C-alpha cells in the first residue's frame, strides 16, 4: 500500500464522494477512482459501496480507514521529526 493511495482513500471516505476527494486533493476524479480500484485489487476487498449519492465505506473500508488515518498521522509526524533533526539541505 502506498501512502498516497491511502490519503486518497481517506479523503473519499471522509467526503463520501470521489468527486469531493478529487476537489480537495486537486487531482482528477479518474485518479481517485483508479487509486481506490488499485487498493481494492491489492487488498482483495471492496472498500466502498457506490450509490447515486456517492460512496460509503464497507466494513473492510471502515477497518482500513482507521488504520490508514493512523499510518498517515505517523508518517506526518516522522516527516516533521526528520526535518527538525536534519536541518536544511
Automatic annotation (TrEMBL):
UniProt KW Membrane keyword: no
Pfam family of the protein (one): HTH_1
Entry keyword set: DNA-binding, Transcription, Transcription regulation
UniProt GO molecular function: DNA-binding transcription factor activity; transcription cis-regulatory region binding
Residues of the HTH lysR-type domain: 1-58
Gene3D superfamilies linked: Winged helix-like DNA-binding domain superfamily/Winged helix DNA-binding domain (1.10.10.10)
PROSITE patterns: HTH_LYSR
InterPro entries found in the cross-reference section: LysR_HTH_N, WH-like_DNA-bd_sf, WH_DNA-bd_sf
Family: Belongs to the LysR transcriptional regulatory family.
Protein name: LysR family transcriptional regulator
Amino acid at each position: 500500500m502506498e501512502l498516497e493511495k491511502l490519503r486518497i482513500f481517506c479523503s473519499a471516505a471522509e467526503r463520501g464522494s470521489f468527486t469531493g476527494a478529487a476537489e480537495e486533493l486537486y487531482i482528477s476524479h479518474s485518479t481517485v477512482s483508479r487509486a481506490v480500484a488499485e487498493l481494492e485489487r491489492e487488498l482483495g476487498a471492496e472498500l466502498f459501496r457506490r450509490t447515486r449519492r456517492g460512496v460509503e465505506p464497507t466494513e473492510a473500508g471502515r477497518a482500513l480507514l482507521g488504520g490508514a488515518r493512523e499510518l498517515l498521522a505517523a508518517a506526518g509526524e516522522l516527516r516533521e521529526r526528520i526535518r527538525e533533526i536534519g536541518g536544511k539541505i
